[in-house]
């Protein structure tokens, strides 16, 4: 654990132990792995494995390589590993930024069902950079963090991020144009890294305050900007920065979640049309009794989570009407009805040409790829596949509609109208209405996650390395040396689109 000064005045305890920020900081400081139910620990290991799969897929994507080379050019070498790059190292902040960018690299990573954010891309890069920084800086006076410490700290981040998001009504912030995970995320990164490095509750309050004042992210990044892949990286970097400053007794904003003037929740909720505008009590609600880790969903498709129910509606129709759906050139019109947050996030009108980032965020485009290719994998978003006439013909026939009476926030209704085909097909429309996508109904099982991991990394790393990573992560609480984990993630990986 890191060296701390818990006896210093104003550092050992949060400024108001009874308020939401203080209760959260105290819980982070005191929670042990023994307090976490075994099934939550086991699920967290599988969630982490999914995050490592996404990192390996993302490390050498074209946009990731552009980002990495630019940062290597502008930053001096450091002591924290950029994973998949054969030993390249940067400062802890920049390593966290890039490793997060890799995890977010191709819309394959986790998301939260109550308050949308991508937990692995926030927590894992901050934690692994904190481990290497702590070892290399020789600040520690205690035993270096173990796999059990990493697992507990990851779970802390998994618990904190969604709670902070629920203080802003979760997905509603997407409707306002904010990138939700980039707003909620610094808190998750600060909480997890602060736990790993052994900060006192008072220091954790400071770390959260420093992290929150750096929060932000514009959802317009989703249309064509590479920076959408990096915005969770900003959050991971900024949360870790808050932790490292607070460990040195730098004072952050006190009571940051409940402050009225300039407080985190007060500012990000301004003008949201809600009454009350924000919910400070959600930040520390049911800590240790309700586990938000259970709300982390793993993706079955390589696209934004709000498109997944659309994909499953198409799959449903392909199963029910296989001959009809294969004859996609006879489709006249596609209508996709979805709730407010998904509509604002993924119901916008796509215009040709489109980059991979925009295509993965757009319900019409994703529906077209499922109809034509019967798949939504990284291959559908290769540059050679993004400008296909048959895909754009269907995109141009698609209308997305905001419909808030679908009974479930993830529900989608998809209707396809075909050209009339005589008596053999008396109805010229088919419809599918699902309450939510695979990954929610049902959620991916632990066995599904292992299979996804093996499928994604096949061909990108050798089988021996794959098995060693899998065994280590699924037995993380038995890992004594986290340097073993870091060494497995260090060697070069391959570009899945090559």
TrEMBL record:
It comes from Exophiala bonariae. The lineage of its organism: Eukaryota, Fungi, Dikarya, Ascomycota, Pezizomycotina. SUPFAM superfamilies: 2-methylcitrate dehydratase PrpD. It holds the Pfam family MmgE_PrpD_C. Belongs to the PrpD family. GO terms for molecular function: lyase activity. This is Uncharacterized protein. Residues 23-274 form the MmgE/PrpD N-terminal domain. InterPro entries: MmgE/PrpD_sf, MmgE/PrpD_sf_1, MmgE_PrpD, MmgE_PrpD_C, MmgE_PrpD_N.
